[in-house]
Every structure is written in structure tokens, then in C-alpha cells.
Amino acid sequence: MIICTYLFIFIIGAMLGSFFNVCIYRLPRGEGIIFPGSHCPKCQAQLKPWDNIPILSYIFLRGKCRYCNGIISSRYILVESITGLLYLGLYLRFGLGVEFFYYILLFIILCSNVEVIALPARFCLLANLPSHVWPKFLVSFI
Questions:
Q1: pTM value?
Q2: Phi, psi dihedrals of residue 128, rounded to the nearest 5°
Q3: Could you give the CA distance from residue 26 to residue 75 in angstroms, rounded to a whole number?
Q4: Could you give the number of structural domains in the chain?
Q5: Is residue 91, in this structure, part of any structural domain at all?
Q6: Chain Cα centroid distance, residue 3
Q7: d(Cα 86, Cα 80) in Å, to the nearest integer?
Q8: Do 105 and 16 contact (CB within 8 A), yes or no?
């Protein structure tokens, strides 16, 4: 039963990672996050639902668009995988407490920053951590 819970948390994290990818790509470009639907950034072909399964679609399509054979950025599978692992790790460390959601927010900011380099990295990672979180943040790496 515990393994099912962990798998569920990872899958939810990967699914939200897929949504974060939409936000990371579209928001800096002024595009909507719901409309238009998922499409290839190269050929603009509308993606089918089975082309949007986090992690698995990238693997089955071998990192290429089904329609134009254009290369899909590895950022997609990385963000989905890292988000799934991050959700699982944070759940194991903090449960579903405030810290859990705080670190998720920092991860979204970091990913958006990497895409457009809008904010200094030190602001996104270090200056944003309140003093009461620092000890927990450091202990989590020990």
C-alpha cells in the first residue's frame, strides 16, 4: 500500500510537471495556458491525448514530434521527471505541509527563470528562503 502511495505522489508530480512545462513555455511568450491546446512548437500540429502522457510519451516518441519528426526539447522529460521525484522527496520529508508547497513554488520559479533568465538565480533560490526554512532545507541534504 505504501508503494502505491509513493507511485501516486510521483505520478501526480509528473502530471503537474507537464503543466509546469506549459506554463514555463507559454507564459513568458504571452500565450494562454489552456487555449490553444497542446501542439508541436515547430509544426503547430495539435497533439493527441496519448502524445501528452508525462514521461512515457517522450520515451515512446523518442523525443520527436509524431507529425514533423522535429526534436522535442529534453526539458520536457526532465521537468516532468524531476517534478515527480521532487514531489515524492518532499512528501517523504515534509508530508503535505506548508514546506511541501513552498518548495514546489520555488521549483516553478526556478524553471521559469531558466527558460527566460528573467531573475537572478540567487534571488530565486537563496534570498527567497525565509530564515525558519533554512535549517530544514540544509538538513534535507544530509
A1: 0.70
A2: -85, -10
A3: 14
A4: 1
A5: yes
A6: 22
A7: 10
A8: no
